[in-house]
Amino acid sequence: MEWLLQAVCSFIATLGIAATFGGPRRSLVHIGLVGVAGWMTYYLLTLAEVDAVPASFAGAFAIAILAHGLARWYKQPSTVFSVAGIIPLVPGGLAYEAMRAIVLNDYLESLQYAARAGILAGAIVMGLVFAEMFIQLAARSRLS
Amino acid sequence: MSQHLRQLEVECFVLAGKLLVQSGAETYRAEDTMLRMAASQGYTEAESFVTPTGILFSIGHGYPPKIAQIKNRSIQLDKISRINEVSRKLSSQQITVEEAYAALKEIEQSRYFLNLFWQIVLSALGCGAFVVLFQGSYLDIPSAAAAGGLGYAIMALITRKTKVRFFAEFAASVVIGLAADLAVNSGVGLEANKIIISAVMPLVPGVAIANAVRDLMAGHLVSGLSKGAEACLTALAIGSGIAVSLIV
Fold first, then answer.
1. Is A118 on the interface with B (CB under 8 A)?
2. Under an 8 A CB cutoff, do B78 and A24 touch?
């Protein structure tokens, strides 16, 4: 049942973020579901002992693809659906550990955490970008 | 074509671009929207230059360019979606330029359907849910929700009063850190780090980073770099706020 709890909480978390980003009233539920899809992709992959970096990449990829589909369907910009969903994937814990290590004057340890957080953030961004490229290529091959 | 109408058209296109940038849309979306709106009115030679702090737009050779300054930016997905609708209607000739301009003016003045109180409540609930996502103890959910709501409220209030975003983010994260510390010391919370990272989530510049990279990929180097710098400053403000609260 743990996964169900994770799904519900990722829905609430994404919804809370969407409210601070001024999400449109009629899209709030969709935004939440996009967040669930991204988080569950990440969560299930990490449960299957996949490293957090490819898991973050896959989560962001899923979010971007789903956001694109919803954007087509509801004739809205895809940003509306995707931005709140990626927030749960952000490596806040590592950034926090990096900051705490700096406060404790332990710069070496801080660098380790910061590098890991940077790579995870990069993986999220890469997931979004790759998904966009993938969609563009798919659209182009369908045209030709 | 009369001078008056052309002026209104230019005003309308630039207002759409300006509102998009102010609402946190990507630079390519702002440019694309303005050019598409202009093309639908017969200005196929229109050119634009958009940065996060200003817009330069001309409907073609021989026409004077128009400048719009952009002073503040925040994320308003609702506005992006509504502006997109207006531009779509104008491009498919469903509405005239006058109607589009009136609609954009209304969007500019409009407020989000949730007032600040409900935004704080929802973000607090979200912070509570983040504790579960980060494998924290269920006992920490109330503390994280309280700290997160408090932090977001402080951030929103300071941004309204001073317009200095970085200071607002700094102050909010100091308060979040102190609140988490208080919760743990008084026995309400268990793990300060889980409470803190859950509570700062609404402040994290995730969107800014994603938009910055998208702009860079789309070839908007100026916008991409400056948005990246903004995101780094925000991250720094949050980080140093937490650091200060850890030292105190």
1. no
2. yes
| SS3 annotation, chain B | CCHHHHHHHHHHHHHHHHHHHHCCCCHHHHHHHHHHHHHHCCCCCCEEEEECCEEEEECCCCCCCEEEECCCCCCCHHHHHHHHHHHHHHHCCCCCHHHHHHHHHHHHHCCCCCCHHHHHHHHHHHHHHHHHHCCCCHHHHHHHHHHHHHHHHHHHHHHHHHCCHHHHHHHHHHHHHHHHHHHHHCCCCCCHHHHHHHHCHHHCCHHHHHHHHHHHHCCCHHHHHHHHHHHHHHHHHHHHHHHHHHHC
Closest residue in B to A27 (Cα–Cα): B78
Residue carrying structure tokens 């919803």: A70
pTM above 0.90, yes or no: no
Higher confidence at residue A120 or residue B163?
A: A120
CA dist., res. B69 & res. B47, Å (int): 17
Residue A82 banded pLDDT, cuts 50, 70, 90: confident
Q: Which residues of A touch B80 (CB under 8 A)?
A: 77, 79-80
Residue whose structure tokens are 């509801």:
A74
**Exposure letters B196-205 (e unless 16+ CB within 10 A, then b):** bbbbbbbbbb
Answer whether B103 touches A (CB < 8 Å). no
Q: Residue B67: phi, psi to the nearest 5?
A: -110, 140
Contact A20 B209 (CB under 8 A): no
ipTM of this complex: 0.87
pLDDT at residue B220 is higher than 70:
yes
